[in-house]
Design a protein that fits this description.
4-stranded antiparallel beta sheet; single chain; 2 helices; mainly beta
């Protein structure tokens, strides 16, 4: 999703005739609160909307959903007008992540067996890969893609390199231990996951 969508949001109440027609498509649930949704994409073949949840919804191993997403597309057999009709493509909760290029998305928590002290120069994390990896840990593939230190925070950007092998199953993956070395003691600063938008404090694991 382009960053401009978040920087200059257009509420779904500004949808044109095509977007409003899409919302009447097959299996598309009724939306009564259009002003709370933001237009991600509106074209002759696709409509995508996003809405920030009133409260983030925590799941497992650091996974926290912050938004709700809706996509409607034209597909299937042509109708009387010669064009496919509008149908629901996807609907559900999500979070917003930076595009890390070749690195995949991961959920990050603090290792409950090694909570960092103020004097710590190392931070032990548990990193859970979201991509299909045949239920294996991501040892050797976790990458620190960025680290920014301020007076109050240490912001980390962490991703995972793709697993090798042409065929990978998708039964979920266990967390992978990963250590980040700091240039100076942690002190009172907060550890923040900056791969998420907006950045969020890294939760405790366990």
């Amino acid at each position: 999703m382009p960053l401009r969508v978040l920087e200059k949001p257009r509420p779904a109440s500004e949808l044109g005739p095509t977007g409003r027609e899409a919302l009447k498509g097959e299996e598309v649930r009724r939306i009564d609160d259009l002003p709370t949704w933001t237009i991600v994409e509106e074209s002759d073949t696709r409509l995508a909307l996003i809405r920030e949840l009133d409260e983030p919804q925590a799941e497992r191993q650091g996974l926290v959903f912050t938004h709700e997403f809706l996509a409607v597309e034209r597909f299937g057999s042509p109708g009387p007008d010669g064009r496919p009709g509008w149908h629901m493509r996807s609907s559900g909760r999500c979070d917003l992540r930076k595009d890390l290029g070749e690195l995949g998305v991961a959920d990050v928590t603090l290792d409950p067996a090694a909570r960092p002290a103020k004097a710590a120069r190392e931070v032990r994390l548990l990193v859970t890969e979201r991509a299909c990896a045949s239920g294996q840990r991501a040892d050797g593939r976790v990458r620190l893609a960025g680290m920014e230190t301020t007076a109050t925070e240490i912001r980390l950007i962490i991703g995972v390199a793709e697993a090798s092998g042409a065929v990978r199953t998708c039964q979920g993956n266990p967390p992978t231990p990963f250590t980040v070395r700091l240039d100076e003691p942690l002190g009172d600063r907060v550890l923040v996951d900056a791969s998420i938008h907006p950045p969020r404090r890294i939760p405790a694991g366990g």
